Amino acid sequence: MDGVTVIDHPLVQHKLTIMRKKDTSTAGFRRLLREISTLLCYEVTRELALTHENIETPLTEMDAPVLAGKKLVFASILRAGNGLLEGMLDLVPSARVAHIGLYRDHDTLQAIEYYFKAPEDISDRLVIVVDPMLATANSSISAVEKLKERGAHNLRFLCLLAAPEGVEAFRKAHPDVPVYTASIDSHLNEKGYIVPGLGDAGDRMYGTK
Ligand code: PRP
Ligand code: URA
């Protein structure tokens, strides 16, 4: 699908399978999410622009590549987005961070906002929004709307698992925002869960169920 990248690296797919297993422990789930997020980060930043800087090696001078432009912003949709955020910050420690607090109302599946904090100058930066799950897309659509209201206009959305219904809804709402995911699963069930999925990502990360 246009604007959607499925990250099919073997290590990503292997780790995702272990995360899906219902008997994987909270500690194991959290560790795998952190590991997998570094691999996803590698893919979502693959096209970043480079410039050159003159440096001295112990032997000589050279023009060496460095990232161009301002530092990235990682925007984490709470709670579960923080599981992806940590591994991404391992790889890009200088990134700025936005937090968007959203939870799904279990009956309506609408996203309810309870927190928002982002760097002032997000309009000048590439913003990578992270949340492991793209189900109905109500949460991610609302998070991106809020970031755009604050001036962001160069955005990418990174998740671990997506439902086809969510991908379609997200792309319709934000056709300018490319989606990166490790898998597009079969469908959403009647409660808005991704099938086969991995269950509730926040609960599995934090052991809250
Ligand atoms: C989960 C997940 C996403 C959202 C996806 O969060 O982390 O944010 O559901 O579903 P959607 O695409 O249908 O909106 P949840 O609401 O369970 O909150 P939590 O992260 O605090 O557990
Ligand atoms: N949120 C989750 O954590 N899991 C799903 O399957 C759907 C939404």
Automatic annotation (TrEMBL):
It comes from the Bacteria. Allosterically activated by GTP. The keyword Chloroplast does not apply. It catalyses: UMP + diphosphate = 5-phospho-alpha-D-ribose 1-diphosphate + uracil. Pathway: Pyrimidine metabolism; UMP biosynthesis via salvage pathway; UMP from uracil: step 1/1. CDD domains: PRTases_typeI (cd06223). SUPFAM superfamilies: PRTase-like (SSF53271). Uracil binds at I194, G199, D200, A201. One of its GO terms (biological process) is UMP salvage. One of its GO terms (cellular component) is cytoplasm. Pfam families: UPRTase (PF14681). Binds 1 Mg(2+) ion per subunit. The magnesium is bound as Mg-PRPP. Its cofactor is Mg(2+). Its EC number is 2.4.2.9. Residues 6-208 form the Phosphoribosyltransferase domain. 5-phospho-alpha-D-ribose 1-diphosphate binds at R79, R104, D131, P132, M133, L134, A135, T136, A137, N138, S139, D200. Keywords: Allosteric enzyme, Glycosyltransferase, GTP-binding, Magnesium, Nucleotide-binding, Transferase. GO terms for molecular function: GTP binding; magnesium ion binding; uracil phosphoribosyltransferase activity. It is an enzyme of class 2 (transferase). Catalyzes the conversion of uracil and 5-phospho-alpha-D-ribose 1-diphosphate (PRPP) to UMP and diphosphate. Belongs to the UPRTase family. This is Uracil phosphoribosyltransferase.
